[in-house]
Amino acid sequence: MAQLNLFYPALPKGFTSITVDIEKDVTFTVEKKIVEALSKKFPDLDLLGHEITLYKANIPLEPTETLQKRSLQFIHNPTNDSRMESLHMFDHYFPYIDAIPIAHIHILVSTSEVEEMTDIVDADIAFFRKLVRDKARLAFPKFSPSETVKDPKRYAQVFGKTIHVDHLPVALFSPILASLCKDLNRLHDIEPEPEIVQSACSYIKAASPTYDNEDMLRVAISPSVDSTFGNLVWEKNIPWADDFKPGSSCVSIIEDIAMPYTIFELRNLLGLLGDPVLEASVGYAKIVSSRKVDTVCRGRTNFPMILIGLAHTRVQIAAAVFTGSIYVSNLITLDLGVGLNATNHMITLARVFTCVLKCQSLLDKHYSGLLSQPPQPTFCSAFPNPTPVNSGVTIPSLTYRGVILNQTGGIVTDLTQLNQGTTAKYYATLADDTKVVVKFAPRYNADAHRHLADAGFAPALHFCEDVVGGLVMVVMEWVDAKPLAYEIPLTVLDKITDAVNILHAKDIVFGDLREQNILYNASSGRLVLVDFDWAGEHGKGKYPPHINMAHVGPRRIWARGVMPYGVMEKEHDLWQIRRMKSDAGLEAQLGQTS
Question: Where in the numbering of this chain does the Protein kinase domain appear (predicted)?
Answer without folding.
Answer: 312-594
